[in-house]
Each structure stands twice: as C-alpha cells, then as structure tokens.
Amino acid sequence: MNERFLEALRFENTIRPPIWIMRQAGRYLPAYQQIREKHSLIEMFEDPEIIVKVTKMPIDEFGLDAAILFSDILIILKTLGQKVDFQPGIGPVIFPKIKTVEDIKQLQVENVEKSLSFISRAIRTLTQDLNCPLIGFCGGPFTVLSYLLESGNTDKLKTTKRWIYENPEPLKALLNLLTEQTKSYLKMQIDAGVQAIQIFDSWSGCLSLTHFREFAKPYLQILVDFVKDLKIPVLVFSRHSSLYFEDFMDLGPTGISLDGSYPLKPLLTKAQGSLVLQGDLDPELLAFGSQDQVKSQALKILKITSDYPGFVFNLGHGILPMTPVENVRALVETVKTFKRPGLTKQLLEASNKG
Ligand code: CP3
Fold it and tell me: What does the alpha-carbon distance between residue 345 and residue 354 come to, in Å, rounded to a whole number?
C-alpha cells in the first residue's frame, strides 16, 4: 500500500512529496472519453461500476499517490429532490429552479445513504482494489448553493449575490440544510472507507471578505470540525484560498489546497509546522506548456518545498480537458524521481543515530 499521501498529511513524509491532480479522473483521458461517448454524465455518476473504473484510470495510467472518487460536488442536490443536468457549453443546470423563498420550502429532503447508496457501494469496492489512499469529497455549502441558485448561469454569482441582499435569512436556512445533508454524505463516505476528505468551496473566495465570513466560512467550519471529529484528515480548496489564507487557516483544517495566485514561500512560512499545503502548479501551464516548461516549473515548486514534509504536489485548480496526457506523465515523473536534499540528509542522520 502506497501511504505517501497520508504520511505527508501527518508531516511524516520525507524523500519526495506525494502527487495527485485535482479533477484527475476524467475529461483529458482518452479512456474516459470512450466511456463518456456512450453515457450521459449523470448515468456515469450513478453507476458504481463506472465510478470504480474512472476513479482507477489515472492511478493505472500514471501511478499517482492518491485516488479521488469519481463523482461531482453537485450530486448532493439529488438528496433535496433536485435534478442536475450537465449541459455541454452551458454547465450544470438544476431543476426544478429555485426562484423564491417559497421554492426552498418545497425541497424534498431525502435520506442521504439511501439516495446516494451507489457511491458507498463504489467506495467499498475501491478501497479493496486500490493500492493507494482514496480521497472522498464534497462541495462547500456556499459553492453548491451558488450552482443551485445560478443554475446554468454562472455570471459572476449575480443571482446568489442578489439573494444575499434580498433574502439573507432564508439563504442561511438553505446553507444550513446543505451543510446537514453534506455531513451525512461525508459520514457515509468515511464509513465506506475513504481515508481523507477534500472540501471544494471553489466559489467562496469570490465573495467579499465580509460576505465570505457570513455566508461561507461558518458552514465550512461545521464541516471541517465534523470530519476532524471523525479522525479523518481534511483539506480545503477554494479558487482564492491564498487571498483569504488567514481565514482558511482559522478553520483549522489538516491542509489548504492553494490556488497558485500567491507565491508559495511566504505561505510556507505562515503555515510552518502546523498546516499541510497542497498545490499549486498552474493548470494552464500543464495544458499549454511544453514538457520542458512543465518540468522546470515542477522542479521550482519541489525545491521551494523541499524542507516541508507537509507538502502535497497538485495543481492550483482542476486539470483542463485539453491537457496532453504526455504533459501529465512528464509532471508525475518529475515529482516521483525528485529527491529532497535537506530531508534526505535529515533522514540519513536519523537512521545513523538510530
Ligand atoms: O478527479 C475528478 O474529476 C473527481 C471527480 C470530480 C468531478 N467534479 C467530476 C466531473 C470532482 C472532484 C469535481 C468537483 C467539482 N465539480 C467542482 C469543484 C472543483 C472545481 O473544479 O472548481 C465544481 C465547481 C464542480 C461542478 C461541475 N461539474 C461543473 C461546473 C461541471 C461542468 C464543467 C466542467 O468542469 O467539466 C461539472 C462536470 C464534471 N464533473 C465533469 C467531471 C469529470 C466533466 C465531465 C465531462 O464533461 O465529461
């Protein structure tokens, strides 16, 4: 069993950082596209056999150090009686549409384990089959809420911000409901065997800091505390996680997944010793750069983080669909063949002493 990822989350990792890639299961992989041609996305997300197959694809292809469950942050909306349709060129469209406070009261709250049992079945198979840890995940309540309200129209969160001003209290009731359903969903994933959780609150960093603290952070806090109480490591990601770094630190997660918009070095200093950092190669570089450019940027990150055992190599955001598979291979090879000079020396000294 390859434990490198879990070791890094405990600051026990030494020779090189682990690597996994956000949104690694899908999109850019030809084997994924072959399955995708025959099925709608929702069919794929609800079929345990397909979930298992797609989750394993990037592990078999590149030997990454962690797998992430093939699902979507919006699948939780099924437990509120909502349907999600991923429309090409538009994005996720959710119906029936939530337009008024009355519509919120009409939501049909379902039992999570029952509605999403195909996911726990897939997790049970995966934890037996995989030779590396499996990461479970959920969306941050604010981000899921924004998809629910915008439904296909992600134009700068206009509708969501309108609700913030016009109906803040019903909005908070809806955030509480999403948080409760998400807690059950995370518990279900953990009971089925996932070994770490990542919370994707992609859009919360697009709020003003005041609104972030009122409409995103309290719900993230409930989820982070909930996972920590279950003794499972928890990472938090947002598109501007480095902009609100102190606030994300306040949440007390195991780690923060950085978005790449701020230099790594000062963040490593701030996080020193207590917080795992994950990130933060630019997904555009991986998609459009040459293999040499990818390698040289990866080496830069590896060197900057070489004396930080709590570092996990990843991208600053999800991998883009047009990313060449050979660039991904070059990246993974670069990370896997790297040897940390400082830590290797410490390890040798420790083993000599021992
Ligand atoms: O490695 C993985 O891909 C694991 C599974 C995963 C998916 N979505 C599958 C998926 C994960 C972790 C997600 C997270 C997710 N989904 C986020 C948070 C991360 C981020 O990128 O900000 C968000 C905001 C979503 C919502 C979502 N799902 C959108 C906006 C879309 C359409 C556009 C897009 O990103 O592709 C999806 C569809 C979706 N979810 C696909 C996959 C593989 C696309 C599949 C396809 O088009 O074939």
Answer: 14
